[in-house]
Amino acid sequence: MSGAGGVVLVVVDLQNDFCDAPAAARHGSDPGVLAAAAGAAAGVVEQARAAGVEVVFVRFLGDVEHQGPSWRRRDRVLGKRAKCVSGSGGAEFHGVVPVAGEAVFTKYACFDAFLVDGFERHLRERGVVRLVFAGVFTDVCVDSTARTAFQKGFEVSVLTDCTTPLHLPEPLVLSFMERVYGARLTTRADPELWAARPSTEEESSRPSVRRTGPVPVTSEWTRE
Q1: Residue 137 main-chain phi, psi, to 5 deg
Q2: Which domains does the chain have, with CATH numbers?
Q3: Taking all residues of the chain, what is their mean pLDDT, rounded to a whole number?
């Protein structure tokens, strides 16, 4: 079941290596931002389940043997270590556990879930028209998957309280997604979150739902 209006919640890379304390320490000047986003993402999973909306999990495995030459060169030049290595605690889900019947798609050293065999087919077979995104990071794997989703004809919603960027200022990333992909920026408190999308005419006559509080901007963004 995909829920009303063909909606699914796509949870991206909510894994320990991206969400635990060391990861939070890399996250700009406020490690609490990442912890809050990860906690909210875990919470919206329960919210979707309670509403009868399908939850689709996407996870990342970064083992060296999965990496292409350009990925290995980047890691060597920038001194990056492989993250979410198969069988490690860092690869395990953070704060959530998929339940029986929920699909889990694995990305092998890539950002975009549409590069995973079966991901798009799973959505098409269920008549999905809108993907609601939660997870990390807004400017990396969430963006990569949302970009392809838009190009393949899916509508995109981004839960701004359930994700956070790593490299770029949040207002810049969200504005880009809204302008280029037509992403609907909203939060898990939206009472119409899982409802069928209105028609184009109805949508144009109503304001978009945005984060209600101020969005912090910091220049201390670090590399993943």
Answers
A1: -105, 150
A2: 4-203 (3.40.50.850)
A3: 87
CB 163 within 8 A of CB 138: yes
Instruction: For residue 70, give both structure tokens.
Output: 């350009």
Specify whether the CB–CB gap between 9 and 134 falls below 8 A. Answer: yes
- At residue 46, the 3 state secondary structure works out as helix
Orientation of helix 143-151 relative to helix 170-181, angle to 10°? 10
DSSP letter, residue 89? G
Report the predicted TM-score, pTM, of the whole model to 2 decimal places.
0.86
Q: Which two tokens stand for residue 142?
A: 């969430």
Helix (H) or strand (E) holding 164: strand 155-164
Single-letter code of the amino acid located at 147: R
Instruction: Report which of 47, 19, 44 is spatially closest to residue 33, judged by C-alpha positions.
Output: 19
- The per-residue pLDDT for range 136-152, each reduced to its tens digit, is 999 999 999 999 999 99
Rg of the chain on CA atoms, in Å: 17
Which residue is listed with tokens 């406020």? 30
